[in-house]
TrEMBL record:
One of its GO terms (molecular function) is transferase activity. Transmembrane segments: none annotated. Pfam families: Peptidase_C26 (PF07722). One of its GO terms (cellular component) is cytosol. This is Glutamine amidotransferase. It comes from the Bacteria. InterPro entries: Class_I_gatase-like, Peptidase_C26, PuuD-like. One of its GO terms (biological process) is polyamine catabolic process. Keywords: Glutamine amidotransferase, Transferase. CDD domains: GATase1_2.
Length: 270
């Protein structure tokens, strides 16, 4: 790759179907990025592009803008956080408590197609929070729909009133990719009420929380296919208690330069 050519990184959008009172755009769907994550990638040399999703009610039909075109042009993909993944996607009916949580089947379907487009080309993928969970489902894994209900623990993984201020410690699994970046565990920002139940095929655990929940994984079959349940974009790297965001992002961007290896098949067959 030409050293002068910047790395082109796709970032999946969050979707907002109903704008709040006072918002200047009325009665239209909004697609947006949380700026901390975009800035984190840009800080380390990636040129960030939001990859817009398509809706059947939108101006573009599916054939007008193909996710494979993005996968051909862009060097890597980052899947950001957001609302819950619909349990039907991994073969389960929603449990009762899920009525209190938002899901977005439109985003689920789109991001899975986007993920497949990059994975079949074995281009690097980094998943954050929801993105981590979606990558697990893509590989045939399942999720705890609600940790407090299905896996009670004294460790809080979600408190809406604290949001990015909620932290807990993770331990790095010996012998994995993350151990090459971090000599020891540390604190991470944790904002999720769901988590990995069955680990996807070909994935290995890279980090766990103190209550044993999977907090990071990588693929043993693909190139750079890494997901973290935490939010590195909210870490304050100057504070030693946090796992620094820098090694993870730099490793991702380095992988985006190639070379690529033969990709594996996904499980969902999308």
């Amino acid at each position: 790759m030409d050293a002068a050519k910047p790395l082109l990184i796709g970032l999946s959008p969050r979707l907002l179907y109903k704008t709040p009172d006072g918002f200047e755009i009325k009665s239209k769907s909004i697609q947006y990025l949380e700026q901390n994550l975009a800035h984190l990638i840009a800080k380390h040399g990636g040129l960030v592009f939001m990859v817009p999703s398509l809706e059947s009610s939108g101006l573009l039909e599916k054939d007008d803008l193909n996710v494979h075109q993005y996968a051909e042009i862009l060097d890597g993909l980052v899947l950001q956080g957001g609302v819950d993944i619909c349990p039907i996607l991994y073969g389960e009916e929603p449990i009762e408590v899920m009525a209190n949580h938002k899901t977005d089947p439109i985003r689920d379907r789109y991001e899975l197609k986007l993920l497949k487009a990059f994975a079949t080309r074995n281009k690097p993928v980094l998943g954050i929070c929801r993105g981590f969970q979606l990558m697990n489902v893509f590989k045939g894994g399942t999720l705890f729909q609600d940790l407090p209900t299905q896996l009670p623990s004294n460790l809080a993984h979600f408190k809406s009133e604290l949001y990015e201020k909620l932290t807990h410690r993770v331990e790095i699994t010996p012998g994995g990719m993350l151990q090459q970046m971090y000599t020891a565990g540390g604190e991470i920002v944790s904002i999720h009420h769901q988590g990995v139940k069955k680990l996807g095929n070909g994935l290995r655990v890279e980090a766990t929380s103190e209550d044993g929940l999977v907090e990071a994984f990588s693929s043993t079959q693909d190139g750079f296919f890494v997901g973290v349940q935490w939010h590195p974009e909210f870490h304050i790297d100057e504070e030693e208690r946090f796992l620094s965001s820098e090694p993870l992002v730099k490793k991702f961007l380095e992988a985006c330069k190639g070379p690529l290896v033969k990709p594996s098949e996904n499980i969902l067959g999308l």
